[in-house]
Amino acid sequence: MTKTATPSAETLNAFERELNDVRDDFMSRIGQADADYIRKVIRTQRLLELSGRLVMVLGFVHPLWWVAGVIMLGLAKILDNMEIGHNVMHGQYDWMNDPNISSRRFEWENAGDGNSWKRYHNHEHHTYTNIIGKDRDYGYGMLRLSDDLPWRPKNLWQFISYINLSLLFQWGVAYHEVAAERIFVGKNKRRKDSSLPISRRQLRNDFLNKAGKTIFRDYIFWPLVCFPVFWWVFFGNLAANIIRNLWTSTIIFCGHFTEEAQTFREEDCINETRGQWYFRQILGSSNLEGPRWFHILTGHLSCQVEHHLFPDIPARHYPEMAKRVAEICHRHQIPYNTGSFGHQYFTVVKRVLKYSLPDYFHSRPRAAA
Amino acid sequence: MTQSQTLELNTWSRGLRWVTSAVTLHQNLADYVEPLAQMIWPGWQASSWRARVLEVRPEQADVYTLVLRPSASWKGFLAGQYIELSAEKNGARAIRCFSISSSPDHYRRTGLIELTIREQQGGLITPWLKQAFASGGGVNISAAKGEFLWPQGDKPLLMIAGGSGITPFRSMLQEAAARSSTRAVHLMYYARDAHSWLFHEEFQKLMLSFPGLTLSFMDSDVQGFISAQHLHDFCPDFVTREVMICGPSAMIGMARDICAGAGIVSDHIHFEYFGAAPLDMPEAADGNYVVSFEREGKAVATDSDAPQTLLDVAEANGLKPVSGCRMGVCHQCICQKKSGVVFNTQTGRYSDTGPGEIQLCVSVASSDVILDL
Ligand code: FES
Description:
Chain B: This is Ferredoxin reductase. The structure holds 2 protein chains of 2 kinds. Chain A is 57% helix and 2% strand. Chain A is an all-alpha fold. By secondary structure, chain B is α/β, with parallel strands linked by helices. Chain B has 4 domains: 3-38, no CATH class; 49-141, Translation factors (Elongation Factor Tu (Ef-tu), domain 3, Beta Barrel); 157-273, 3-Layer(aba) Sandwich (Rossmann fold), CATH 3.40.50; 283-371, Beta-grasp domain (Ubiquitin-like (UB roll), Roll). Chain B is 27% helix and 29% strand. Chain B has 10 helices and 19 strands. In chain B, strand 3 (82-89) and strand 4 form a beta hairpin. At the A-B interface, helix 2, helix 4 and helix 7 of A face helix 1, helix 2, strand 4 and strand 17 of B. Residues 323-326, 328-333, 359, 361 of chain B line the site of FE2/S2 (inorganic) cluster (FES). FE2/S2 (inorganic) cluster binds at residues 323-326, 328-333, 359, 361 of chain B.
């Protein structure tokens, strides 16, 4: 993988200033339109969820109803996780001072406990983006996606692990921190640099509680409420969850694991200036291009670069911001990774496959890079 | 109810709460339904009541009265209580507390309540409210709160009001008149000059229907601040009365000292900082502010020469708030601010003074601040 050389301090300073200007500019536009927007998305999500659950029940009239219901519920789950949950929990709407739309209280429709996710995602992943060893979102401790990690035989079938992870993605999200802290399995040795602000017991309880709620909701409560069609609803919910899992996992993999997205070492972030931090965020992320509905369904993670630069600006501004960020990068000759969804995803698959093999199968002279 | 019944009830309600949060992902069903209900009733909130602003009535150059009609399910109030009023300004919810200045009797007859509000100079909300609702609109109000109430019994009362601290007294006096109270009440009302007494004529008319009422309008321009001499001169029997004080904090302090000094027991001295309301703008300007950690019961002064983030201040004082990146990215350090203005070093913006959530790691106090820590 090519590594882009760090630009001069001068360039980085200018770069930092220009990006700060972009941020200030958009910061000053935040207001009523954003509040109205997120409320509208939440309304749509609620309507989709409730009508999806209703329509699914009509499956006994004609199976197409069931299919329609599943798709609606799947969309509702996607909206909840992406455009609403992810962005609200990043604090993009905290300024609204609305307790139901605040990062502190929001809980998403996902097996993962929101607080746990905020700890490892908002903190670790966003601060130490793509730093091997610190950003546990990088490959999720399962996949080898760069030659920073030594090859191991289990990497041979990592494409299958990847498919499994995608199908069960919400459980991956849920289990992530619990796994890293070795709560249930693993050598009973605590992670040395654990920065858990809560007790291990609490972490375990939160995990079990949220997991229990998730299973109860989709596989016990709703099927029971619609008792005569218990299995229609049971499998409908399962299908909707799979739709959501595949979609979210695919979008998220496109954000940091495309061919060109770079990795970093721990030394890279010591005493970083904001400019260097911006620089690292840009090199480690990649964007997807598409129509507006596509951006919304990705929670604007299609603008992963902008999201990483400005994680707490309401995401609906990212496509506009992207134009200016791309221009700034271009001017300073900093690579800006963007492409169509199809193309970017293709490179993700390529990357998962490529690093499943030991390095000598694909290494070209690395020193020259 | 037997103990086992209570226990059963508790388990039952806890189970119900678990199911609610499993199915709706909200603490209660109403919060989940809120966005849908808003399609029919814009602005509806599960945790408060809607109120229509019917009129903004000017009282003086910088004082106005909001006339509100709370929705029918609102639970009413006792004279002297206040409400939290929240209104949406450019997408953000702003919350302020105001004493109700009209009487419960008036509410029973007309369904209306009044809030009398002084515009804070340079304030963010109070001048805005006046303009934004000049031609009506909707706001949200809380249930009535507060313990500053008309005392039971028939012991004579001395009411000491300063500036817009008159509002709870107006409510109490109107109510007493409506109930044909025979109690002896002396109102001493301090204003900064002779043009600034609110409801001047109204109080004088009130004396007709409320024979026990005595009024002393005090002009601070001429008579100065409250003093023991004033009390002796205008209300010679004040030591035998139950005292109620509402106004700016300096005045409350002085009045309490005077009364306590004259031998009135503290059970008979009631007071309320007018508008339990946070002020619109910071008062101190020298840059040394007090940061209070409410749950910890600790308050520390900050040093303007070496500004520190609130996260650092908290940690330097032995608290361990949750934090993560320490650079404003992760929102782990979000904390409820009860009141006060903070400066966000990342966005370069000042917060509102009312309650709100802030990121400790990038916030610097720019007024006295109370934190829920
Ligand atoms: S500690 Fe990360 S935002 Fe404050």
